[in-house]
Amino acid sequence: MVNSEQALHQHDPAPILQLDKVSKSFGPVNVINQVSIDVRPGRVLALLGENGAGKSTLIKMMSGVYQPDGGQILVDGKPTTLPDTKTAESFGIATIHQELNLVPTMTVAENVMLGRTPRKWGLVNFKHLRRQAQAALDLIGVDVDLNAQVGSLGIARQQMVEIAKALSMNARILILDEPTAALTGREIDQLFKVVDQLKEKGVAMVFISHHLDEIARIGDTVSVLRDGQFIAELPADTDEDELVRLMVGRSIENQYPRSAPEIGQPLLEVKNLNAEGRFTDISLTVRAGEVVGLAGLVGAGRTEVVRSIAGVDKVDSGEVIVAGKKLRGGDISEAIKNGIGHIPEDRKAQGLVLGSSVEDNLGLATLASTARAGLVDRSGQHKRAAEVAEKLRIRMASLKQPISDLSGGNQQKAVFGRWVLAGSNVLLLDEPTRGVDVGAKVEIYNIINEMTEKGGAVLMVSSELPEVLGMADRILVMSGGRIAGELPAKGTTQDDVMALAVSQVDDSITEEAAAEIENTKEDR
Amino acid sequence: MSTAVVSQKKSTTASKIGHWMLNNGALVGLIALCVGLFIATPHFLTIPNLINIGIQSATVAILAFGMTFVIVTAGIDLSVGSVAALGAMTSAYFFAEVGLPGWITLLIGLFIGLLAGAISGISIAYGKLPAFIATLAMMSIARGITLVISQGSPIPSAPAVNALGRTYFGIPMPILMMALAGIVCWFILSRTVLGRSMYAIGGNMEAARLSGLPVKKILVMVYALAGVYAALAGLVMTGRLSSAQPQAGVGYELDAIAAVVIGGASLAGGTGKATGTLIGAILLAVIRNGLNILNVSSFWQQIVIGCVIALAVGFDVIRNKTSK
């Protein structure tokens, strides 16, 4: 290991940021255990690991959000501490988050110089402001109108503004947290061109992505994390299968325990569903006992389709039929009454009432349906909540505990439990295991198995292709708001899915549609 | 979290009491204040004075119970003072100028409150106006209508309304009304689907909506309820004076908000209790009463009350931090 590491870095400059055997625990949970990372100028270090592997904790330690419990941080070879983000910034460490830290109503120039606005007699010196902002943008060679409102720019342009802002603060180390997640193919190319330029200028970069091909394209080395442990540091062009094996650490069969029950009658039928700017001509069928995966890139319209089936958003035309009954559409409570349960993509913002108890969260969908004369069935709701919490093995101190105390996996099990209580037999899952650790993932897959064994139907949106390949019986791939094709789960590879997923993205018409989808998302 | 449970079980009686005091800061403050006032002046703890405090706190408490519904849903209602005046004035108008029977005019007053609240609720839920703006508008409109109806002068109110301000068999009706309003508020919040839905909406509106709760309808009902409570408070005020005053209840919305917040609710929504609100309202009345007895000028009273609001909320912030 030591020898290979020396070989890996023999021509590399000395690291400017080092994490030396750092550890971090939250309560009894050891999130990061003795991980060492070297960040070198002019190099791109890719961090690879599953959700919950500890990547985000690690970058939060680099940017001063978290302090390590053990080990030390070295900047320019000198041991130091990063007690807050200000200190990290003063060392030239900047993070570009997925959610950008920009003020949408201010101009590009003002955003680049935010917090350091040049003044003259206490007034904004607009001449200097524009000159300095332009200099920052020139560093990355991107042509953006300085006077444009940031909110009017596309997400890719906004990212460039954010990078320029970081560089203008003399950032030497850029941490890019999944920067490509919201970008189209062409925008990714542009971002990578900027990354290459910054490499030449000697900027050190830490790059996080779930896409192995991107890591191979842009990374120099890749560090693999698993369950908070450092596994290996390898050249970025290492064989993908090898990287996956290191990242997952076990065979796929164990990780996705899909049991295939007997397939019955169609439970959910969607016919020619259209919603302008969101998706076009969606038809699909999910039968009793079946898990259908809905794959595709971010912005392909998967979430929008699921929301429309669940009655959250209205559609322009088309039919949703549940167990032979046609729904009026655009009515959440109608969908629930007919057996639809919707697990939204953002658990904290859309799934849970974080300040309320586990019990109240479990009983949210059945609050009205179990009531008598407008009065809550308190003992019944409590009894049923206790039963379902036991059945789904939700780990908690008590049903009265605030749900915010629970781990991500147990929170998600509670959202499942809500629909178990409601007797839903058509489950719409949107990224059901996002932010859930590996162990709890398997438990959630077992819940999915139980639902289908009882004759339920599951439509599952997931950006994690291994999950789709491992848990779905059939896979529908969306691209540019349409269903681009259907694949059987058996014998399909990630590449097959990706080929369909990008099939409509590269022509400019759908790219516009994708941008529109982004916009409608923001409007909500 | 499991360790917290263990330590709670192990904890001594003393730390249990400490824990309870931390969680019931407003009540502890109220008791401490009462003890202090009793030591300062024996006149404080006499039956007539206590009844006096009860009557003085009744109006604000009734308004504050209605405000509790609104604040639990993460909203705000700035119109309750004006709606109180409007409900009372309409009632008096229909009695004195139209000549309808007294008990009907009482119902009219409550209905006007419901209507005003529902209009606020509709413009918030369906018109997508921020609650602050919608109820600020209603505050101005309701006050304006009150002045138009009354031409700026008091109007005598119906005997049925005046009964709300009297004392029967030694029981002052304002206190009875306050108790009734409080029990209904507690019942709605803790036992009914409507009440539990309010907590869900205030805690996370999107999660509530995706779980099938009729969020918009509930919001309209919440503001309508606050309107009814406001009108009831206005009628009680009117009953005590036997006439509806055009300037009644000016600034009361702020007292009501203060009572709810002192009672432990967060303006961010999802929390709040009828018992807390009652304690908040009584605390405000005790402070005013105590300072009056001690001959402190009413100018100073405002300063003290401002400090108490800041203290109560600051205390809550600390409590939430330590519990994390």
Automatic annotation (TrEMBL), chain B:
Keywords: Cell inner membrane, Cell membrane, Membrane, Transmembrane, Transmembrane helix, Transport. The chain crosses the membrane at residues 21-44, 50-71, 78-96, 102-122, 129-149, 169-189, 218-237, 257-287, 299-318. Its main location: membrane. One of its GO terms (molecular function) is transmembrane transporter activity. It is found in: Cell membrane. The keyword Transmembrane applies. It comes from the Bacteria. It is a multi-pass membrane protein. InterPro entries: ABC_transp_permease. One of its GO terms (cellular component) is plasma membrane. The keyword Glycoprotein does not apply. PANTHER family: ABC TRANSPORTER PERMEASE PROTEIN YPHD-RELATED (PTHR32196:SF21), ABC TRANSPORTER PERMEASE PROTEIN YPHD-RELATED-RELATED (PTHR32196). This is ABC-type transporter, permease components. It comes from Corynebacterium glutamicum (strain ATCC 13032 / DSM 20300 / JCM 1318 / BCRC 11384 / CCUG 27702 / LMG 3730 / NBRC 12168 / NCIMB 10025 / NRRL B-2784 / 534).
